[in-house]
Structure formats: structure tokens, C-alpha cells
Amino acid sequence: DSLQPAVGYNWGAGEKKRVMAIERCCFTASALLSLVSAAVIYLFPGNLASIFMQEASGSFFEGAAAALRLFSFTYLTRWFSFATQSFMLAVEKPVPASLISVSTALVFPVLLVILLWPLGLTGLWLNFAGTSALAAVLAAVILWRVPELGKGKEKQEGIS
């Protein structure tokens, strides 16, 4: 989000190369930070849980650590839809940005709650990672279909 002014300014000035350079840095930094976060959460769930649960014991603490481990998978792909949504807003594409936002906040979680219901609490924790993965796929499709970015078809309908 903090790069939106720089991206928007350069987009308005017609500096597509600069926009792409800024976004390349943004996407790379987001990916690296998220992958490191996923690894730390996955490898040290007990240590992280103990920060918030100093007096927890036994199965409750073990459940929290297991939940964190499942939740860590969210970080593998969540960065991509966040970065894409921010990018779409910066380059004056509010419809694709809104589509990512609504899908991530409502459509995908509700769909996955229904699909993962049989897994109980495990399904609830996997919902985050599933939503993240679906949002990443949606973001990739959106990036590919926006013609002004040099990809996809020359004339698009429905994405503005």
C-alpha cells in the first residue's frame, strides 16, 4: 500500500517501465518476507504460541501450536493477492482490486467453510490457507488479463 503513490504517479506520467520496476521490487520483497514468515511460524509454533499463552497447558497449548502450523501455509500465497490488489488500485483498476477484496473477504472463505466443514477445527484453520491460494490464482488471472500491463488480450471486456 505504501508504494501506491509512487506507482500511481509514474502510471499517470506514462512511465510503464518505472511502474513495473517498482512493482517487481514490491512483489519480490512481499514474497521474501512472507516466505520467511511462513517458515518461522511453521518451524516455531510453540515458541510463538507461548508469547500469547504464558499460562496455557497441555492440549490447549498443543492445539494452538498445531493451528499456527496450519495457518503458516497462508503466508505462502497471501502476499500475491495483497500486492496485486494494491497494484490494481494504484494503476486505476478498481474493479479488479474490488474483485480480489470481496473474494478474499467473503466469497472464498464462505465457500471453503462449506467445503472444509467435515474437517472440523482443522478445516477452519485450513480455510485461511485455502482462501489465500484461491485469491492468488484470481490475482494471477487478473494480472494476466489486464492489457495495459503488456499481457493478455488486446481488447478486454469486464476488466476495467
Automatic annotation (TrEMBL):
Transmembrane segment boundaries: 25-44, 56-76, 97-119, 125-146
InterPro entries named among the record's database cross-references: MATE_fam, Membrane_Transporter-Flippase
Iron: is it a keyword of this entry? Answer: no
Question: Could you tell me the superkingdom of the organism this chain comes from?
Answer: Bacteria
GO CC annotation terms, alphabetical: plasma membrane
Q: What UniProt keywords are attached to this protein's entry? A: Cell membrane, Membrane, Transmembrane, Transmembrane helix, Transport
Q: Could you tell me where this protein is found in the cell?
A: Cell membrane
Q: What is its main location?
A: membrane
Topology class, membrane: Multi-pass membrane protein
Q: Which GO terms describe its molecular function?
A: antiporter activity; xenobiotic transmembrane transporter activity
Would you tell me the protein name for this molecule?
MATE family efflux transporter
The source organism is Candidatus Caccovicinus merdipullorum
